[in-house]
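hey so i finally got around to running the thing on that chain from the lab meeting. sorry it took forever, my laptop kept dying and i had to restart like 3 times. anyway pasting the input first so we r on the same page abt which one it is
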Amino acid sequence: MSQYSPLHNITPPIINLVAEISEKLGHWSATGKLASPQLRKENRIRTIQASLAIEHFRIFISIFMVLVSN
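ok and heres what got predicted. didnt touch it at all, straight out
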């Protein structure tokens, strides 16, 4: 068997960056529940529209709003 050698070395600066990202994600996750229901709905709609666009299925936000509202 050959020895595995990682492509990158884990260094203190990398660990610090990972810690900062994790802290920001935790803060975002904790305060994300404080966002208004309208903002969450708009973000969900944009996420769905982006997912559909990736699949080459275009839908306009105005049409999608009508579909979601019903």
